[in-house]
């Protein structure tokens, strides 16, 4: 068997295609800056001269020798491992390049490039990109390297010079004229100040200098989060997976700390953020480095292996808006850093997104959850500091609870995040709390003593020894105040009428004794009845009730009845009186209080009636109309006679229509008499007049003195006051036996006795 070998040939076209993996000038510029960073240079200087159409990149790194140049042009081959830490030129750096495509970046700016590099000797070489890509086999391209002896004082480093075309000059100048973009190029590298990796600053050991047509700019190593618009600063937040603790600082004090666990050891995540509560135009006082280049809103910057990652969606300041707006804390700046040497860390061509895999998904989710946690907790702290959070369990506390060892923090709600920074003191009847600039308090309520009130009413001249002793006993209390009316005095004088108030304050009780010493009133005579029966013997007590000067009934008084009429038999010695004529009689009554000597005299009028003229009951059967509570003594004689005859008529079934008309006539007579008596203006029809009387029943009830009678009348009024009963009786009044399409039957009228009974009692009461 015969074997042969074939050589693999790489056309120059592949170089052109590989260069397309660098999508724009800014990515290319960043790649050139990273070459200087990897070379251990403390600085890199980029000079753009539009007049000469030249771009120069200089550094003072380790430089290159022949082997390094060969490695540079070994396309897609690199000994570098991205993210690994190395020490070079005395600087610790995280390797940035690993793809072997770094030298292609220069060809984004121009086709002709020259290199001058110094290490152990000085090497100079150049490449014409147009000629390179024409090669049938790129390895045949003649790369001529000129070697020169290094001067003793000549420093190591590399200088790249590119002939730039008009388009790229204009494109670069336009991009870098925006300060938001410029500051991000100049501050595209960071470093950690401590081993906790949570104090992040622009890298002071790698200065990026940019000269554009003579105007020079450089990395601002003085950008300090602590100094960015201090007036509106709120929380400083720091985190690192070294400790997995989120620390919140307020006014340079650690005010709160909480766990945030990230279990993946393939990367180190750290964060240093300053949050704000900005006033109007406050953003203008913050460095443009922290502006989102698209929205121009404030944003923290994301760095991967210490190099700026142009992504503003992974750490999204608006992440809480769709969840809960009250938990949004979007005004923030600072740095978010991811450090990893895992080979799965890779990016899309314009370095704005991670290439998706399990590691980059975990990094993205961790940053998102960390962001949400910070905004949620930060918003709660903000609410506590601005007074929106209620700190206290109560607004008041009993004085008895303020004892030795009292801890006012027990009144603070346990879910308050900043409770460890609350200070308190007791002052002016309050527990006063302070949380930084916020003040709040709990009112101390003095122990409430039980209050008891005693009222005494006594008559002057009738104060017995037991009461005097009681008052004397009160005098022995230690804390006592005595008032005569509203005037405070030393002691009580029981011989002086008026209101005396004794206020005794004891350990658990305040007793207020009000003593009203009253001048004796004249005795009082009241008439018990106004109608008396003919030839009936009455005791004085039957006609009059008497009260002495001290409000006592029938005690210590003398009642004298004076009457000179011949038909009145007044037996003064026996206290008896008889009336022998039917008429109205006037009596004089004089009452003397035997103790005070005060007297009262009245003139009383009595109507003498003949009991035989009362409404008589029918024989053998119950009356159709009867008085519910009284004996109709005060009804007009004509009404009483009408009712008596109507009861007789009710028993005779022959007189149905006459009976119905008579009942309605009786109602009309009663209603008109009542309205006349009360002085109420009458309406044109009976039903309206009856309604006026019904509305006046409250006055009727007030006239009744006997509680039992009042209860009976109230029950009757209530029973006829329902809607059905009222409408039924009004229908009866409107439908008389004449002038109507319907004639009311006798049986219907027999059910109207309650209404008639109430009308009779009202008229009887008005005439009493």
TrEMBL record:
Domain of life: Bacteria
Gene3D superfamilies named in the record: Histidine kinase-like ATPase, C-terminal domain
Identification of the protein by name: Histidine kinase/HSP90-like ATPase domain-containing protein
Provenance organism: Enterococcus canintestini
